[in-house]
Write a structure and sequence with these properties.
The complex is a heterodimer. Chain A is α+β, with helices and mostly antiparallel strands. Among the domains of chain A are: about 140 residues, no CATH class; about 90 residues, Rossmann fold, CATH 3.40.50.11290; about 60 residues, Dna Ligase, domain 1. Helix content of chain A is about 30%, strand content about 25%. Chain A has 15 helices and 23 strands. By secondary structure, chain B is mainly α. Chain B folds into two domains: about 150 residues, no CATH class; about 160 residues, Up-down Bundle (Four Helix Bundle (Hemerythrin (Met), subunit A)), CATH 1.20.120. The longest helix of chain B is centred in the N-terminal third of the chain and has 34 residues. Classes of the chains: A alpha+beta, B mainly alpha.
Chain lengths: ~475, ~325
């Protein structure tokens, strides 16, 4: 379907497939702000847009806003591909997403508190006990521990997609150490600097509050009785692929970025090594997985962690954000139960629904999955980053057969979902402006209450027809504009 | 000179808590950039003077200044412009090459990214990438001077950006410490090797060739014009050595560098109330006293080489004292 009239110019050849298009095929009458973006974009010349895109990429590279990939000799910095055409959300859409994310975070925190205390939800058979207690992410050190404010997940990323009708669906929760928020803030700065003519006069919700909000939340959950808590960000160090993001967040919050070797524990209290001697630390935003945090409790070979940290944590002398053992909540198998979890704790209907999910660990789920494999997406529950999944409609017979074998051998390791006709967004591609599939990861920050960063990370699958948006699999990012009205 | 206030300074948030690791990296960042600049100067001046005098011996002294004889002859049979230049600019197996040092500078800057300005990082990042891409074509005889000029300018740009953007807290003082300890070390090496290379025996002393060599020594330390202005008639080896060791107005002299080190340590001890400064302070004082109390003639008579050698050892000890005070080794609880 070619767009007529209003979509001339840049979009003259834009071929909107039968998907929800964030900009050009919304199935309703868009608000004036969105119309304006559309018209302004349409007036752009393709060559000019490419010049801007090149300038953006050069600037990212100079700034070193990169992933770092290390080979044996060199640090190779890669820029996350960035598309200069923004993804725009209306005020009404955002209101819905924001309430949905807040509800979900609240339920996740209640769920985590329950499974590490009285386990009502397991005893009431709402969630199978072995799924939780037998989960590799279930952390014994958390059992019976009270965390400040009952907050386990201080930073949460919810991956959303939109279906053919534009309905938002939750694809997965990220309740461990969700990443990508630095791109949201950097991309916005870059957009305003290099595409100023697109945003002029539009009421776009700002994103630069993120640092102060996160800092405040982390201070709010510091151990009680500390007047001026010292917050630090714990990073695996300069060789970590996300080091740039750690630096960015530490700077935005105005807090020290520390590595494990900068911290020490004495008498159950945590200190950082400074030129003036040890200084107390009260709240740690850790970007280190559970396994690496404390060699005395977890992986004894970890050189990245801090011996004694978990002991200090259990004594209530330091707060970890996120808490230990939150991985149970974003497990792909537990995800399937999230609508029931929300109803159980909040007595509310989920505002954001899940993608229909079949649990292969249950006989009926497995039977359905095997019978409909060529129509389904099958995901291993333990993996992230878009690895090891099967997209039925795109798979060869050999791949389907292989997955049938895998499913029968270890059904509990898989869930399946129907293929969602993900929404598309116009994207600058080698052949011109074309529709590419996008998702959305809003970031929620929880201290005394939950605040959601307006917008979030819009990832775009740059390969034509691809549904996989992960940066490791050819994905890029877009700036996400939330219109205030 | 920074005054030590009689009142405790107002404590700004975040100022008191410089991580030890940041202090260490700040110091090394400054040292590496200073070292790169000195290397570029040395190569440029050597190239010019070797061409003028038709002696290949000049290249030999670059290796000796850096005490790299062993490593160099592992990889090269003979000392030629080609071999020395590639060894010191593009050779990744030589830790003293500009490419190796630029990478180290950037690794330290990467550690310091939470602390340093975006401009500092961006410049270093672009600079290091450029250096890493240098190939044989860029270091040929016809391009060497242009290349060294660009290297020098990039270091100076770095120092300028740092001066203009780095927040003035303890990190700034560690930066000053690193830069000036390195300068002090470099100037003593330059004097030591050049003095003995250029004064092999009585023959040739005072001749034209000899003085043009000494002129190039001054130039390599950016001291030529200042020296002319201060001592227009006094172009003698002793005066030149004296100028580079004892002249407080010349920013690369040993005495000026030591004074900066002394001031920075005094600020750390005074303004920031950091303990454990005294061992390094005492050692710097002692060095300064020996400089003030001796004339350059005394120094030469008693043995210039021995004195330079002693200073270099003291400088290394000061670096160790600072390390022990501010980033003491961590004793692993697991071991």
């Amino acid at each position: 379907m070619k767009m007529a009239a209003q979509a001339a110019g840049l979009f003259a050849t834009y071929d909107v497939p039968d998907f929800f298009c964030e900009l050009l095929n919304r199935r309703d009458i868009p608000p004036p702000g969105l119309q304006l973006v559309r018209e302004r974009l349409a007036r752009f010349d393709l060559a000019e847009l490419r010049r801007r895109a090149a300038a953006v990429e050069a600037q990212f590279y100079r700034l070193g806003i990169t992933f770092t990939v290390y080979s044996d000799r060199e640090a190779i910095d890669r820029v996350l591909p960035f598309d200069v055409i923004p993804r725009v959300l209306t005020a009404a859409e955002w209101d819905h997403v924001e309430r949905g994310v807040q509800q979900r975070v609240q339920a996740i925190n209640l769920f985590l508190h329950d499974i590490y205390h009285d386990r009502h939800i397991l005893r009431d058979n709402v969630v199978p006990a072995d799924l939780v207690l037998g989960n590799s992410n279930y952390c014994q050190a958390m059992v019976g521990l009270d965390v400040p404010g009952g907050v386990y997940v201080h930073i949460n990323g919810t991956d959303l997609v939109r279906d053919r009708d534009g309905r938002f669906l939750v694809l997965e929760d990220n309740a461990r150490t969700p990443s990508g928020v630095s791109y949201v803030l950097e991309d916005r700065q870059m957009m305003l600097r290099l595409m100023p003519d697109l945003a002029t006069g539009l009421d776009i919700r700002p994103v630069d509050e993120y640092g102060p909000r996160l800092h405040r939340a982390l201070a709010e959950v510091a151990p009680t009785g500390v007047a001026d808590p010292q917050v630090v960000l714990l990073s695996p160090g300069i060789y970590n692929a996300a080091y740039f993001e750690h630096v960015f967040l530490a700077r935005e919050m105005g807090i020290p970025l520390v590595e494990g070797r900068d911290l020490m524990v004495e008498d159950g209290r945590v200190y950082m090594r400074t030129v003036g001697g040890p200084r107390p630390v009260h709240s740690i935003y850790r970007r280190l997985n559970d396994d690496f945090l404390d060699p005395l409790v977890f992986n004894p070979d970890s050189l990245l962690g801090v011996p004694g940290l978990v002991d200090a944590y259990r004594r209530g002398n330091v707060t970890l954000a996120n808490a230990l053992g939150t991985g149970v909540a974003d497990d792909k198998a537990v995800y399937a139960y999230m609508p029931r979890i929300i109803r159980y704790y909040l007595d509310q209907e989920p505002i954001l629904t899940n993608v229909e999910t079949h649990i292969c660990g249950e006989p009926e789920g497995l039977a359905y999955t095997l019978a409909n494999l060529e129509h389904l997406v099958v995901k291993p529950v333990g993996e992230s980053g878009g690895y090891g999944l099967l997209i039925g409609p795109h798979a060869t017979q050999a791949q389907l057969d292989e997955f049938r074998t895998l499913l029968r051998a270890d059904p509990a390791n898989y869930i399946s979902q129907p293929v969602i006709s993900l929404s598309v967004s116009p994207t600058l591609c080698p052949a011109g402006v074309e529709g590419r599939h996008v998702d959305l990861r809003p970031f929620a920050v929880t201290g005394r209450d939950t605040w959601v960063l307006p917008g979030g990370l819009s990832r775009v699958a740059l390969r034509k027809g691809s549904l996989v948006v992960n940066s490791s699999q050819g994905g890029g990012a877009k700036d996400t504009w939330v219109l205030a009205s | 000179m920074t005054q030590v206030s009689a009142f405790p300074p107002p404590v700004l948030p975040g100022l008191r808590n410089l991580l030890s690791r940041y202090a260490e990296s700040t110091m090394w960042l400054a040292r590496y950039m200073e070292r790169i600049e000195n290397m570029a100067r040395l190569i440029e001046v050597t190239s010019t003077s070797v061409q003028a005098s038709n002696m290949d011996a000049g290249w030999d002294s670059v290796i000796r200044i850096n005490a790299d004889d062993a490593l160099f002859f592992q990889h090269h049979k003979s000392v030629t412009e080609r071999s020395v230049v590639s060894f010191y600019i593009t050779d990744r197996d030589n830790p003293d090459s500009i490419v190796s040092m630029a990478r180290c500078a950037r690794e330290n800057a990467r550690v310091l990214r939470p602390l340093i300005s975006t401009e500092m990082w961006m410049h270093l990042n672009v600079f290091t990438r450029w250096v890493m891409e240098l190939g044989p074509d860029d270091t040929g005889a016809g391009y060497l001077s242009t290349l060294c000029t660009r290297l020098k300018q990039d270091c100076q740009t770095h120092f300028g950006i740092t001066e203009g953007t780095l927040y003035r807290d303890q990190a700034w003082l560690f930066y000053i410490l690193g830069k000036n300890l390195e300068r002090a070390d470099q100037i003593t090496r330059l004097i030591d090797i050049k003095y003995h290379t250029l004064l092999p025996s009585g023959a040739g002393v005072g001749s034209d060739i000899d003085m043009s060599q000494w002129t190039s020594v001054l130039r390599s330390a950016a001291a030529y014009h200042a020296f002319r202005r201060v001592l227009p008639e006094g172009m003698t080896p002793a005066n030149i050595v004296g100028f580079m060791l004892k002249n407080d107005g010349f920013p690369r002299s040993l005495s000026a560098s030591l004074r900066s080190v002394d001031c920075a340590l005094a600020s750390l001890a005074g303004e920031y109330r950091l303990r454990h400064c005294s061992p390094s302070q005492e050692r710097v004082e002692e060095l300064r006293v020996t400089l003030v109390e001796q004339t350059v003639e005394d120094i030469i008579m008693r043995g210039l080489h021995e004195y330079m050698d002693w200073i270099q050892r003291q400088l290394r000890q000061i670096q160790n004292d600072i390390a022990n005070a501010f980033w003491p080794p961590v004793v692993s609880v697991q071991a």
